[in-house]
Amino acid sequence: MRVIRGKSGTNQEGTSAHNRRVMIDALRLNGKLSRADLARASGLTKQAVSNIIDDLEQDGLVVSLAAVRKGRGQPSTPYRLVPEGAFAIGLQIDRYMTRVIAVNLLGTVLVRAETNLPPGGPANGVRVILDLVQQVRKELAGIAEHLEERLVGLCVAMPGPFGLASDNDDQWMMAAWQSFPLLETLAAGTGLEVALQNDAAACATAERMVGAAHGVDHAVCLYVGYGIGAGLILNGELYAGGNGNAGEIGMALLPPTAGRPERSPLEHRASLASLYQHLNADPADPKLHDRLNTLVSKDDPAVASWVDAAAEELRWGVQLIETIFDPQTVILCSSAPEALTRRIFDAIHPLLPSIANRRGRALPRLQLGMTDPWSVALGAAAEPISRAFDPRFSAILKTRASAGGWNVQP
Amino acid sequence: MRVIRGKSGTNQEGTSAHNRRVMIDALRLNGKLSRADLARASGLTKQAVSNIIDDLEQDGLVVSLAAVRKGRGQPSTPYRLVPEGAFAIGLQIDRYMTRVIAVNLLGTVLVRAETNLPPGGPANGVRVILDLVQQVRKELAGIAEHLEERLVGLCVAMPGPFGLASDNDDQWMMAAWQSFPLLETLAAGTGLEVALQNDAAACATAERMVGAAHGVDHAVCLYVGYGIGAGLILNGELYAGGNGNAGEIGMALLPPTAGRPERSPLEHRASLASLYQHLNADPADPKLHDRLNTLVSKDDPAVASWVDAAAEELRWGVQLIETIFDPQTVILCSSAPEALTRRIFDAIHPLLPSIANRRGRALPRLQLGMTDPWSVALGAAAEPISRAFDPRFSAILKTRASAGGWNVQP
DNA sequence: GAAATAAGTCAAATCAATTGACTTAATGAA
DNA sequence: TTCATTAAGTCAATTGATTTGACTTATTTC
After folding, report:
1. What is d(CA B40, CA B34) in angstroms, rounded to the nearest whole number?
2. CATH superfamily of this structure's domain A85-205+375-392+403-408
3. Which of A92, A205, A256, B258 meets the CB 3.0–4.6 Å disulfide criterion with A377?
4. How confident is the model over A60-119, as pLDDT tens digits?
């Protein structure tokens, strides 16, 4: 008889691990809190908090600040996170280039490096990537003490969807990378625990740690890159779906319209790929970013017409996201130059009516998120930090069930 | 200084509560398991399981069965859930009628009752509803021992979206009910803990407990009722969104097409409301269900043409759901007569290509779910059972954060 | 009949949180 | 100045669920 597994149990170890994460989460949200504050925020007793904070201080994850008097009673001693308490590496693999970034516990970027990917597919590319990771790691070691114990992992961000039959290939995907044992190779080559996210999910991870979704439990990042996707923060955690492909909104088929007799995926109509096509530009051109910037600043009519058309589709996309996810806010992110992203953001307005159109909203329906081209890599780097330190159900359970997406241990 | 709350901590109580839920979950999934099986399934030690099972047995939630010999070693003593270990009441409020249903721990229906809602809005309706609940409760008391201790709650299912500005009203909504303090009134009138779900979410809750989503952690129920919505099972739990309105897919605006010059919401094109309009039928007619059944069995051409048109939209909806949620399966549910739902199900096929179109799928992309008109009420009844007994993050935490949706304590 | 295997129990140990009393350090009122 | 009040934080003992490791029981296999 085969036993269906279900959820696993927990014990004091799980309790303790969770409570440590809760302390870190509260400090991340508030900047600094006293032990008494932490007790109130977490619902634990002063004594429990005291013990945990002592531990965290010993582990070098928190430090005390000068005591502050704020009224009657003994002054409180605030604590804050120690940025150097942990480090992580993020790796972005794009179609023509790759970026590596190192962050600390706070998500502050410490090292970054990028390079073009050589032709010849992943077999060649992965060596370049490993070299670049090694280079970043070395540089990081120069500025980070105790790096080896404090480097909590590596996460790769690349365009999805993942794990599809390879004959599904078209120009919009990166089929060769899909069939390559990337995570295993990286885990073996770095000795780190390796995770994988699609680029929109990475953006959401970044926005949650240091951006517009900081402290927000229900948010969706609409990411306009070469393709287009949505990064989903649901119940305070990234949602990856059954196969790690949740949010691949760019592959949603749109009904035929006057101009287009056939159903076509959203990302054929609104993505940087469609812009490049519209402009007859070569996406492999390393100067494309600058060139785009120039075009935008000159109010190029071809760009303007694309913005209008794309914004129309994205406006619909925002309404769809609001309708389906009921998030507290939607965040527009893009790998495009900031000025262009702003144009798109402006052109999406006014938004279509939706259930999000309620009184007393705390957050705007649509916000502008990170527009830094490094934000995807940053999100990748934030993932291991989040995995190691954020309170989450899977961290309490005994047999660590993978919380969606994939991760591979070395 | 205001402290941002973040997640709360936990303690042994949370651990214990979680482990009890894990046992119940494993038994629900497997039907019967020995203590040793449970230890393997949960990752806990034999001893811990033994203690917990002893407790659960004392509480009347599990019982042992005859020992079975299955090879070498001492025979094992399997345990199963006791159906009479808990009860819950589900309440469905529809536009013209209301249903009340009582279930046990296994989700088996014990009592059901329905009645038409009087005109005059919620102020009148709620008295009828409370009477009906009282009637069901009395009947349940006749067949359920220790009912008062074992009745874990009541959940209301009604069409969403919830909490919108009331001037958003149109014929598709139930605006008067939105502004009425329904949950408070029910909590006061019954003394029970009261929760609220939209009808699609209730359907998903039912499918997860006793239907096609049993044991599935990522599933979406596409519910075709008077309106149309999606019930989201993500990470094994119902997802309700930031304001309890996640999945209101019927309000997604569709682009204009040849026949329709304006954007219009999906549920204007594919829902029973659109069918009634198409047939010039009165949705308040209590014999409508039977009449529809007759029409379907007679291959009525008006029904057939609606099915074709609606299926076209729903086919798109399924592809969209797959693309956005990446679920393990999509489940089609409906309050329509079973024969009609089957017609729709068939007409949706063949499905559009999507990322769900992968080799080695364990579950079909689209499954037929419950078609019983009582399934929404059943799902509502399943909610308090799930809330009380399913393993979930919020059950571990100290200050019971509402896990999405609303619930009100008496 | 003995060895192997597996289910399940017993009793002690472990360990994180809780409890309640206590200490420390500030403010504010008499 | 004095003393009550308030709040932060510690101390020491208690609690309680899981773990540990040895043990018992029951069955099959050789």
Report:
1. 10
2. ATPase, nucleotide binding domain (3.30.420.40)
3. A92
4. 999 999 999 888 889 999 999 999 999 999 999 988 889 999 999 999 999 999 999 887
pLDDT band at B171 (very low <50, low <70, confident <90, very high): very low
**CA–C1' gap, B72 and D29, in angstroms:** 8
The shortest C-alpha distance from B298 to chain A (Å) reads 32
Which nucleotide lies closest to A20 by the C1' atom and the CA atom?
C16
CA A162/CA A146 separation, integer angstroms: 35
User: Cis before residue A161, ω within 30 degrees of 0?
Assistant: yes
Identify the CATH number of the domain defined by range A212-368.
Answer: 3.30.420.40
The per-residue pLDDT for A174 is 66
What are the C-alpha distances in Å from A403 to residues A32, A260, B321, B323?
29, 40, 21, 20
Select B12-81's CATH number: 3.40.50.12780, 1.10.10.10, 3.40.50.150, 1.10.1040.10: 1.10.10.10
**Any strand D atom closer than 7 Å to A74 CB:** yes
State which protein residues have CB closer than 7 Å to strand C: A 12-13, 15-16, 19, 44-48, 51-52, 67, 69, 71-75; B 9, 11-12, 34-37, 46-47, 50, 67, 71-77, 398
From the list A6, A43, A230, the residue facing B22 with the nearest CB is A6
List of chain B residues whose C-beta atoms are within 8 Å of the C-beta of residue A393: 235, 392-393, 396
The pLDDT of residue A164: 73
Phi and psi angles of residue A44, each rounded to the nearest 5 degrees, phi first: -85, 165
Chain B residue with the nearest C-alpha to that of A42: B8
> So where are chain A's domains?
12-81, 85-205+375-392+403-408, 212-368
| Contact (CB, 8 A) for B227 and B187 | no
Count Cβ neighbours within 10 Å for each residue of A257-296 and write b for 16 or more, e otherwise: eeeeeeeebbbbbbbbbbbbeebebeeeeeebeeebeebb
Domains A85-205+375-392+403-408 and A212-368 share a fold: yes
Q: How far is the C-alpha of B210 from the C-alpha of B315, rounded, in Å?
A: 25
B328 touching A, CB under 8 A? yes
Residue A76 DSSP class: B
Q: Which of A65, A235, A267 to mutate to test the interface with B (most CBs of B within 10 A)?
A: A235
Place of tokens 């013209």: B96
- With CA atoms as reference, report the closest residue to B190 among B106, B89, B77: B89
Q: What is the pLDDT along chain A (410 residues), one digit of tens a residue?
A: 678 888 999 999 999 999 999 999 999 999 999 999 999 999 999 999 999 999 999 999 999 999 998 888 899 999 999 999 999 999 999 888 899 999 999 999 999 999 998 877 788 889 999 999 999 999 999 998 889 899 999 999 998 888 775 554 454 456 677 778 899 999 999 999 999 999 999 999 999 999 999 999 999 999 999 899 999 999 999 999 999 999 999 998 877 766 677 778 888 888 999 999 898 988 888 888 889 999 999 999 999 999 999 999 999 999 999 999 999 999 999 999 999 999 999 999 999 999 998 888 999 999 999 988 899 999 999 999 999 999 999 999 987 344 444 566 55
Q: How confident is the model at residue B165 (pLDDT cuts 50, 70, 90)?
A: low
Cβ contact B12–A10 (<8 Å)? no
Query: For B73 and C8, how far is CA from C1' in angstroms?
Result: 11
What burial class does residue A147 get, using C-beta atoms within 10 Å of its C-beta: 0-12 exposed, 13-18 middle, 19+ buried? middle
Q: Please, what CATH class does the domain formed by B86-205+375-390 belong to?
A: alpha beta
Using a CB–CB cutoff of 8 Å, tell me whether B15 touches chain A.
Answer: yes
Average pLDDT, chain B: 90
Question: For an interface test with B, which of A325, A330, A359, A389 has the most B Cβ atoms less than 10 Å from its Cβ?
Answer: A325
Q: Which residues of B touch A252 (CB under 8 A)?
A: 319-320, 323-324
